[in-house]
Structure formats: structure tokens, C-alpha cells
Amino acid sequence: MNDNSVVTAMLVDDETPMRDYLRICLLKVWPELQIIGEAANGIAAAEQAAQLSPDIIFLDIRMPGRNGIEAAVELAQRSQVVFVTAYNEYAIQAFERGAVDYLLKPVELERLQQTVERLQLRIREKRAQVLHSSSDKAKPLQTEVPITAESQQIKDILQQLMQQQAPQREYLRWIQASVGNALRMISTKEIVFFRSDEKYTLVQTEQAEYLIRKSLKELEDELDPDEFWRIHRSTLVRVSAIAEVTRDFRGKQMMGLKGRNEKLEISRNHAHLFQQM
Q1: Are 29 and 21 in contact (CB under 8 A)?
Q2: Which of 57, 188, 220, 243 could be 256's S-S partner, Cβ–Cβ 3.0 to 4.6 Å?
């Protein structure tokens, strides 16, 4: 912004790591922006927005309870709304046709910078309009926030998306790992397997490994069972990473992974996954 006025924002996403990551990204491209609130669902977002009146709301679409789609129209009547989404290409085309601000997960700094520049311009224009209208004769107070052309446009776009997207369970998409003083966001699509001991869980990707404080039981409950299989009490593996299953000299089933040398043991309790062996 070219003036000294304060610009405020809210972050709305049901995944805490994604809110943390977006906060870090915004600090890099817009350090003057003040994050004044966070929410994990649409109900809390609407309540906080009514109290805090943020200039901008970064809003995830799919959340538990009242989701982003249901909350978006109401929120757009008060604030600039930016959708942060993992939706497919069809949905993105719908956003682009409607000239609605959106960010794809994982958020890239260059793309975020473009969105920030558009937001700064819109907020300057909106504040100039308010300043101009304040010089006019006072108007009666409104008891309801009017539906703006922008919020109506968002309503139309989201109705299209709701017709295209069937309700489904939302599985964990991101793992947060601390690397020194940095926060690393790991897409579950990068992960080859998880291996757990008593204190930590090792996250193995094709390029690196990380340690997190999240139990294997928690991960198993939150990950898509079609993408990750439990093959041992201490191991979860990505199905698409499996290359082969063999037996060693003791008769135990061992799993080979694509492009990797190590073998993972398959316990008796999970041998049913590979009944053809």
C-alpha cells in the first residue's frame, strides 16, 4: 500500500499447518499486513468476521461444519475474499471466468504476490470510495449488509461448484515438519512411507526424510485408505510406491519400493493385503 493505513486479514482453513504456512508466505510478500484472526470452519469465520471486520479473508473451500462454500457469500459482503483451494482444473476455470481471487495449494510466492497486488489496488479504490461518500449527506443506517455485485458473482460461481462436487470425506493432504527454524509443508503425494517408533514418526519422501510428533494411529485415521496401507504396526506405505512383495529365507513377506533399495517388513496381521503371495 502507498499510504500508511492498516490493512487487516483473517485466515480460514481447517488445517492448522496450512494457516501457519500461509501466514509465513504473507509475511514475506506483504509484511505490513496484520493477521487479526484465524478460524477452522465457516461458522467461526462468520462470527469472527462480524466482530473484527477484516479487509481480507483467505478462505479454504472444504472445511467441517459450515464450509467455505456456504460461508463465502456472507463473508464477501463485508471483506475481500481470496479462495485458497485444492480444487481441480474445472473449478479453477470457473474462478477465472468470474475474475475471483484464488490461490492453489500449495501456495507459491510468485502467485501470492500477484494476488496481493490486486488486493492492494482494490482496497485503495474501496477506501477512496468510502472517503468520497462520507462527504455526502448522511444516509439512514442499514440493518443488513447489502448483497454486492461481487458477492452475487461468488454465489453464482460456488453454486456451479456445488453441483459439480459430490460430498466426500476430506483426508489429510499436508504434513507439517520442523526443519531447524523453518517450517516444511510436505504434500502427502510426496511421501513414500511413514515409520514410527515410541516418540517420533519418520516421514520418508523420495528426496529426504523428516521427523514429526504425530502417531501412526493418528496418521492412519486421517490419510486416504486407498492411498496408504498399514503393513506393520510401525509402518504405513503409499500404495503407488510398492514395486514388489517377496518372501525372505525365514518366510516373512518383504516389500520392495520403486526406485529404493530398502525392504519393508509386512506383519502377519497385514498379510491379507497380499493374499496372492
Answers
A1: no
A2: 243
% pLDDT > 70, the chain: 77
Give the span between the Cα atoms of 14 and 233, in whole angstroms.
28
Angle of helix 42-52 relative to helix 68-76, nearest 10 degrees? 20
Report residue 204 as a C-alpha cell.
Answer: 520418508
Q: What is the pLDDT of residue 147?
A: 46
pTM of the model: 0.58
* Rounded Cα–Cα distance for residues 114 and 173 (Å): 25
**Pair 132, 113: CB distance under 8 Å:** no
Q: Strand, coil or helix: what is 120?
A: helix
How far CA 266 is from CA of 204, 233, 239, 274, in Å, comes to 17, 9, 13, 9
Q: Which amino acid is present at 31?
A: P
Q: Which amino acid is at 40?
A: A
Whether 193 and 239 have beta carbons less than 8 Å apart is answered as no
| Gap between the Cα atoms of 256 and 241, Å rounded | 9
pLDDT of residue 2: 44
Task: Judge whether 49 and 79 are in contact, CB under 8 Å.
Answer: yes
Q: Which tens digits make up the pLDDT trace of 110-132? A: 999 999 998 999 888 888 877 77
Among the listed residues 31, 1, 9, the one whose alpha carbon sits nearest the alpha carbon of residue 124: 1
Give the pairing type, strands 80-85 and 102-104.
Answer: parallel
Question: Cα(110)–Cα(89) distance, rounded to whole angstroms?
Answer: 19
